[in-house]
Fold this sequence. Notes:
The protein is mainly α.
Amino acid sequence: MSSEAKELAMTRSEVLELIKDRLADILEIESETIKEGDSFADDLDSDSLALIELVEALEEQLSDSVADFRIEDEDLQDLKSVRDAVDYVYAKVGGEQ
């Protein structure tokens, strides 16, 4: 297994679409109904388990293309909305804030 991982550059809109797609699968809703400003708890009625599932799905999806992609456990409490998740992931995949 190679120690080099290829880096994936993603635009912010690609990150948003990825998160919306994964959330839609987890919450069993249409991705088009998810808005960037939606709160996980208040707008999407998702619980902490759904957020953990989202984190696992993102880590699985991005770990092959972004070296050492991981969402730290202590950062989970700061992810309260779709926008928070997009900003966090976008910063991790080399995007500019």
